[in-house]
From TrEMBL:
<comment type="similarity">
    <text>Belongs to the binding-protein-dependent transport system permease family.</text>
</comment>
<feature type="domain" description="ABC transmembrane type-1">
    <location>
        <begin position="355"/>
        <end position="556"/>
    </location>
</feature>
<keyword id="KW-0997">Cell inner membrane</keyword>
<feature type="transmembrane region" description="Helical">
    <location>
        <begin position="362"/>
        <end position="380"/>
    </location>
</feature>
<feature type="transmembrane region" description="Helical">
    <location>
        <begin position="532"/>
        <end position="556"/>
    </location>
</feature>
<feature type="transmembrane region" description="Helical">
    <location>
        <begin position="191"/>
        <end position="218"/>
    </location>
</feature>
<feature type="transmembrane region" description="Helical">
    <location>
        <begin position="7"/>
        <end position="27"/>
    </location>
</feature>
<keyword id="KW-0472">Membrane</keyword>
<feature type="transmembrane region" description="Helical">
    <location>
        <begin position="65"/>
        <end position="87"/>
    </location>
</feature>
<feature type="transmembrane region" description="Helical">
    <location>
        <begin position="298"/>
        <end position="321"/>
    </location>
</feature>
<keyword id="KW-0812">Transmembrane</keyword>
<dbReference type="GO" id="GO:0055085">
    <property type="term" value="P:transmembrane transport"/>
</dbReference>
<feature type="transmembrane region" description="Helical">
    <location>
        <begin position="133"/>
        <end position="154"/>
    </location>
</feature>
<keyword id="KW-0813">Transport</keyword>
<keyword id="KW-1133">Transmembrane helix</keyword>
<dbReference type="InterPro" id="IPR000515">
    <property type="entry name" value="MetI-like"/>
</dbReference>
<feature type="transmembrane region" description="Helical">
    <location>
        <begin position="238"/>
        <end position="256"/>
    </location>
</feature>
Length: 568
């Protein structure tokens, strides 16, 4: 029989995250959706017929699916060669290249949008392509953002694959391409499917990138929800679109969950340490001494180099260069202007004050996300013996992934509708400023779970059983077994939570008070105001936000490295 302290401990670990998710996610989303289907106190589902009878709806749904499909396909096609070069082969400078590839994923979406717009706008380095405000620009920006997901997910499995199966195929006469196609690619299938599912999810729910680069001309379900709620106050249409998005997200999460479980089983058959079985060889040397690029690493190396330099580095370098150019000359005027409110009072506070607001709210949001997400990861990492328990754990894992896909706009507007006096408490949270870090924490919790969960799942359950057998209480087992190992991922979890909160824009655009905007909100405001001075400030502010985000992730990686080094 389980002891009372053990039951109480796990009860708290389950109830606290569920209560947080229920109050600050499920309730606002359900209330907002419900308002669109309840008319005069009666359920009215005619909104579905009205919304789906409009040609605009089908155009938006079609653009959303097309954008997500193309973004996913290009990310996978470019990411698989990158995973091979960066994780399977050994070469000098690989660590630096991995760090560069990671930067785009942690950048705020508003910064990505501004970086590509400054590159493609008339007068920009690639302005002659006339891609500014086009669908192609949105897809390129989405690939820029999600390339890391494919490289990291596929590369993490590839570097641990046993190379002997492919080597055996080569020894039996198979060409390098055939050995890859028939042996390696099927083994990588679960990881590729998992990465593709996640990228599709991110592309389908992109908000800041689409809003900055495409506006309403290439609107998606996400941006349409924002337009219907902020400009037309049409809750019925927004509710229908939120339901459609929720269905799509749920389907993608199911696919991702199945692919992830298959991938975990595959990893159990691989080596526990990176293989790194070969050096990077650009040319294949045949038996007669001739060299050929086919069979060597030249093609994947060239593809990876082009992607890293042209797609990843050029937009970021151009953003910095454009922020330092004023009237055709080098100048720090745009950075000095960050201490003002912009031309014609574009902002209510200075950009530096907005940056301070972002840092404060992100600190609170990261703390909330780490506590709640850590509890979720702790519970989900367990493997109950009973089938019902395993299903409950799997359901809890899936539920806490939903904030990744549900519209942040829906969450933000739902906060405004429901949290004037939550649960009868005589406090109007909408005017307190507390809702911004809470909304950011809701978005960051899934990232914390995904950072901590793999480490907790890797702990041998026999260690916990041995500690319990020796008389350790449940709390002591957690302190002595789980906590030291989970600390390896804690720095990265904090970094991801802080970075996600720092750049969150969808919900924050609803909730940030006019006198206390965050840095992404200030950047978006500056972009929408006329004047070269405001645009220069937007470029400079984007550089500041990118630098803050990169610094946070660098510190997180250092903390992670120190802990790992200490343990080894």
């Amino acid at each position: 029989m389980r002891s009372a302290p053990r039951v109480a401990l796990w009860g708290v670990a389950v109830v606290v995250p569920l209560a947080f998710l229920g109050v600050f996610f499920a309730w606002p989303v359900a209330t907002l959706v419900g308002k669109g289907f309840v008319v005069d106190g009666h359920v009215d589902l005619s909104g579905f017929a009205d919304v789906f009878s409009a040609a605009r709806t089908w155009r938006i749904v079609g653009l959303t699916l097309l954008q997500a499909t193309l973004g996913t396909a290009v990310s996978v096609l470019l990411g698989v060669p990158g995973a091979y070069v960066l994780f399977r082969c050994r070469w000098r400078g690989r660590g630096l290249a991995r760090a560069v590839v990671t930067v785009p994923f942690v950048l705020p979406t508003v910064v990505v949008g501004v970086a590509f717009r400054s590159l493609l706008v008339d007068g920009g380095p690639l302005g002659f392509l006339h891609l500014d405000g086009t669908f192609a620009a949105i897809v390129l920006a989405l690939v820029f953002f999600n390339y890391t997901v494919v490289v990291r997910t596929v590369g993490g499995l590839w570097e641990r694959l046993d190379p002997r199966a492919e080597q055996a195929a080569r020894a039996l006469g198979a060409s390098p391409w055939r050995a890859f196609r028939t042996v390696t690619l099927p083994a990588l299938g679960p990881a590729i499917a998992s990465a593709a599912s996640i990228v599709f999810l991110f592309c389908a729910t992109a908000f800041g990138v689409v809003l900055v680069l495409g506006g309403i001309q290439y609107g998606t379900i996400e941006t349409e929800i924002w337009i219907q709620t902020t400009q037309f106050l049409d809750l019925r249409t927004a509710s229908v679109l939120s339901v459609v998005q929720l269905v799509v997200v749920s389907a993608v999460l199911v696919v991702a969950g199945r692919a992830r479980s298959r991938r975990e089983r595959a990893l159990s058959l691989a080596s526990d340490r990176p293989v790194d079985d070969r050096r990077l060889r650009l040319w294949h040397r045949a038996a007669d001494g001739t060299r050929s690029p086919w069979g060597g690493d030249l093609v994947p190396a060239l593809v990876t180099a082009l992607v890293v330099v042209v797609l990843l580095l050029v937009p970021l370098v151009n953003l910095v260069v454009r922020s330092l150019r004023v009237d055709g000359a080098w100048s720090l005027a745009s950075y000095r202007a960050l201490g003002t409110v912009g031309d014609r009072g574009a902002l209510s506070v200075t950009v530096w004050e907005a940056a301070g607001n972002s840092l404060r709210t992100a600190s609170v949001a990261a703390a909330i996300a780490v506590v709640v997400g850590g509890l979720v990861a702790l519970v989900v990492s367990r493997r109950p013996r009973r089938r019902l328990g395993r299903r409950a754990v799997g359901a809890l894992d899936a539920v806490f992934m939903l904030p990744l896909g549900v519209s942040a706009v829906t969450v933000g507007f739902g906060f405004l509708v429901t949290l004037d006096r939550p649960l009868g408490i005589p406090i109007d949270l909408r005017t307190s400023g507390a809702l911004v870090p809470i909304a950011q924490a809701v978005v960051a919790i899934p990232l914390v779970v995904r950072s901590v969960l793999p480490v907790l799942r890797a702990i041998d359950p026999r260690l916990r059983e041995a500690a319990s057998t020796l008389g350790a209480a449940p709390g002591r087992v957690l302190r002595t077994v789980d906590a030291p190992l989970a600390a390896r991922s804690l720095g990265l979890a904090i970094g991801f939570a802080f970075a996600a909160s720092l750049g969150e824009f969808g919900a924050t655009s609803f909730l940030a008070r006019p006198d206390a905007p965050t840095l992404p909100v200030a950047i978006f405001t500056l972009i929408g105001r006329p004047g070269a001075g405001n645009y220069g400030m937007a470029l400079a502010a984007s550089c500041v936000l990118a630098a803050l985000t990169a610094a946070v992730m660098l510190l997180a990686e250092q903390l992670r490295g120190e802990r790992q080094g200490g343990e080894l």
